[in-house]
Design brief:
Elements (H helix, E strand, L loop, with lengths): L2 E4 L9 H15 L4 E5 L14 H15 L3 E5 L9 H7 L1 E4 L3 E5 L2 E5 L10 H10 L2 H8 L3 H20 L3 H4 L3 H9 L5 E4 L6 E7 L2 E7 L6 E7 L6 E6 L1
Parallel strand pairs: 1-2, 2-3, 3-4, 6-7, 7-9
Antiparallel strand pairs: 1-10, 5-6, 8-9, 10-11
The structure holds manganese (II) ion.
Length: 241
Amino acid sequence: MTTLFISDLHLEESRPDITDAFLAFLKDRAMGVERLYILGDFFEAWIGDDERTPLQETVASALREVNESGTEIFLMHGNRDFLIGEAFCKRAGTTLLDDPTVVDLYGTPTLLMHGDSLCTADVEYQKFRANMRNPQWQQMILARPLEDRQQMARQLREISMAKNQGKAETIMDVTPEEVVKEMEAPGVQRLIHGHTHRPAIHDLKANGKPARRFVLGDWDSHVWWLQVVPGEEPELKNHPL
Ligand code: MN
């Protein structure tokens, strides 16, 4: 029995090496495991399930194949692919998860998040996030012609890149107090998230007891994943891409 967690692959046409690494990961590591969780920013950008690029279709059918072999696959939105919808999930044999979600991981209640909501020091980003996650705004965007949305995505990306260049490092990381607050709300001692591109295992205190936060790594120079088996602490693993 094994459960795997990955996030922040940022799949895109300009990085076929990451797509290849993901397809290899599915074949070599995910095939045959019990559950696979993808905790957001799986794709670098997403403007609607109707786009159906060759990359998206390749990834969907590879995931479905793993699902059909018996692995349950769960997908959570990130800040870049929050418009992934039920149509894609159905094609990919995956189930969409809310952010946050608490799951039972072989007896240990575990909080799963993408992680961007933990970065509360970035007030400007949190405002932007609230707008992007508004269902009415999303419906309005998805109703626009595909070409308009493609143009919008290009502009958003340029704005985001320009803004992040001037930001202090600490703003882009999680706020420790927010982590504790999020873990104490459901009363859990374990959190798994991505987003910050700072893969690590952090010990902290929540609910007056020792707690642990597992941060997944982004797939840029390395393939990162968290492996969980019953009765053992989760293991953060990687290999060069
Ligand atoms: Mn992210």
